[in-house]
Hints:
This protein is 32% helix and 29% strand. It is an alpha+beta fold. The chain has a single domain (2-137), classed as Histidine kinase-like ATPase, C-terminal domain (Heat Shock Protein 90). It has a five-stranded antiparallel beta sheet with strand order 1-2-3-5-4, with helices on one face. A hairpin with a 2-residue loop joins strand 2 (63-71) and strand 3 (74-81). Helix 1 runs antiparallel to helix 2 (34-55). The protein is globular.
Amino acid sequence: MKNNMKLIFDARGENEALSRMVTAAFLAPLNPTVEELTDIKTAVSEAVTNAILHGYDSDPAKQVELSCQFSDRTVTVTVRDRGHGIEDIALAMEPFYTSRPELERSGMGFTVMQTFMDELEVHSAREEGTVVRMTKRLSPRDEGVAP
């Protein structure tokens, strides 16, 4: 089974919850385990929060793009912003690094994404934006929505 979806929303903090809920609803036909769904939702939350806070400085006039697809039991989630971009991706992916210490953030967003997903790719260019692509292979299960 294959399926795709795309959602574009304003860079507002409250839309982070929307991104998690939409992703969970989209993946429901795959009947993921609670742990798999929680992992994906957490990774989506981190990627969307990064786009809003770091890509756009929480500017609600800007938009974040979330796309999800699955093919069989492999899920790919992409979060894209067209904001500031990341100057040094390797540095940004180090645990506890934050470019915005005044926000009292933990600097663990990319680490969380790497921990909960099977693959993480980050592409970025200064003043052009960032694309975060995450992949997770779900465990074999009967397809169809759980009762």
